[in-house]
Protein 1
Amino acid sequence: MAELTWPRHALSIGVFEFRRSVRALWQDKARLTLMAFGMVIPSLLTLAVTIVFADAIRNIEEFAVPDMVRGMVALFWLFGVYLIAQRVVSARPRINAESLMLTTVSARTVAFGLLVAEMLRILAYAGFPILVLTGVSVFLLGSPVSLILLPVAAVLFAATVVVAGSAVGYAVALLVATSPFVARHKTILGTAATLLAMGGYFLFLYPQISGLSQAALAWVPIGWLADLAVVGTPFVGSSLRAVGVIAGSAALLIVGGLLVERETAVFWFIEPVSPDTEGSVSEQTAEKENLRPATRDSLAAAVTPLVVPRFVSTPVQRVAEWALMRTRRDPNRLMFLLIPVFAIGSPLVSTAVQSGSIGALGAPLTAVALPWLVGSLFAMNPLGDEGAVLPVTLTAVSGDHYVRGLIVPGLVFGLPIILLVTGLAGLVSPYTIGEQLGLVILSGYLTVVAVTISPAIGMAFPRFSAISVGQSRDVLPPRMTAVAVHAVLVLLPGALLAALLVAPRVARTVLAGVFGFVPTIVLELLNSSPDGIGILSTAAGAFRAVGENILAIGLDQLQIIGGGATLIGGILCSYILYQNAVHRFNRYVPL
């Protein structure tokens, strides 16, 4: 039974949790800077554009709000629901000091307090852009009513996103806490759900690929917030939809709030199941039915349905199973590997879509990026991942067996998937059969290189201290230095080989620019002053000659010599770093 003053207590909890988030963000200057850039720069660009075109904006004629805008609002709302749900499941399923809070106030108070805190976080991040848009609407479009309606639309958007996302997130968390099967395979299921959600989002975000227009989502009622936001401006929306979205949002908040209350009341007061519960029940049933009990050991059972081949030696098999189990049971650290994927991949995909060359880019990108990702999954922090059992591991297995065990998962499970995906991407590309086959072979080669060199890089840049992600205090991701070094050693040579295979002219031009013309331009700029140094002019001429000589190389000769040298270099690098990893492990002494 909730206390009579639960709304006031929930608001206090929400404000307190929001202030804790602000303090934590203020202490992390790097994260604060990135968030500030993401919030301020787009707003300043929008403000600059509106100032430049102020006269044109004032004289804009009336026109109806297109379905594309409503669909875009609905798409971003659905994506926001997904993000909030993922955040609830992985980072903030419970409040801090849970025992104290749940014995002091009701579960309803705590649940609604968390909702208030999440709404405040979203509004704080979107506050400056909302302020800019409100100013533009009031002063340039002549709509004083926007001073009220735009903030109202923003608050409704944030509130409905948080409530709907939290309802979905707590439902998933409750499923993980009560289902042994889901708890056992949560990493695989979560990855599949993420890929499905992101795939659906990009299908609507880039209609050039799928043919699905964002206007197809205009029927989603939450998209009608666009009609509410433009009331009083030259953009003509539907008054009925504007009223409907207010009523619909209120209904969603009430129903979603009650659902969140019920879910949290169950989730916070039950004992989560163990991932091994299902196996135990199965074994007990087998014994009761006088069936032959399972012969697999607990470590092998922990990674099922994945099976490490039996032809490898037992120490290598155990290390491989241990690496697989760690990766499956600690999905939070894998999110750090997706940061460079989205940071680099999103601009490339967007550029390819806008230029209509997504088919030409897809196969090479798959052949180069997927091997790097698979190589980073299992062995980018092997010593740190061992934790307290590291001294035992150092004495129980040899360096050769340990490093091979770290390599096996990427080769056994990653290599077939990469070959298949690259082959499928090649089928929809404009390349010839020979080029498609070459990309498939290249993807296999890069996968072998990526998984072979990752143990040495991870041992050279280990991380032993855990970091906090939400309420998880023991997340141990690889160091960004290790991720960056691994990316440089895999992605740059891989991109060069892919370019030499499918676009040798482009590869030759890039090489000439990097090693010849770009240094020439830099040196000539430095030497452009009246007191220029003669040696800089000489060096600029030398680099210019290098660039011209590279452009003079025949394409066939460049492919054979340049590609062959890069391939041999990758093999040598793999061998050297493999031996280095074995040597590091054998001689490592824990501090």
Protein 2
Amino acid sequence: MADIVRFDKADVLDRVLSDPNVQGPFMSFCATIAASAGTMVPLSLNSQEKVFAAIVTGHELGFSPMQACRSIYVVNGNVELKAAAMEALLERHGIKRKIMEWSTNRCAIEMTRGDRVETFDYTMEEAVQAGDARNTKDGKPGMYEKRPKDMLYARCLSRGARKIAADVLTGIYVEGELPSEPGPDALKTLSAVGVVADAPAGSVDAEFQKLTDAK
């Protein structure tokens, strides 16, 4: 698994939080990225505040801005990580994982950190009891019906990671763990802010680099 690449302008977001001269341009940058929701970044990052939360959280975890936008969701004021991103963080900190069971009814993962070895599980019965395995608001099948094994794996991974690596995740949830928000009534288009709709995946990092290099 590829290691996480830390963005080389490590002090920029520290300046954003302390320097008013940097905050304005950075929030404008976040607004520009939010306007591309559904094209250059995921649909869920549809406000400058969500983009800001994703990038700052990603910075704390060691992600570049584009990695953060690809890997982090903002739901009801909290952040969720994609399961693959959570796995990458665990790998980076030397936490090994071994799947002991993985079916549509139960997932069990053994995690090892140093001398500590523990096995964690999550079952479909728990998902039903918690209200996770439910249809969407419009009655369509939910993710636990469409991708039961993947959802059980993600929740099992999150449960174990928060127990054995609380210092790494600091309370962050895994994708699908929080109740989802309704979609926006309408999204701004990239053309409204003069950004090409088919911008390449790395363009967020490129624009962020320009911002950090600005005098």
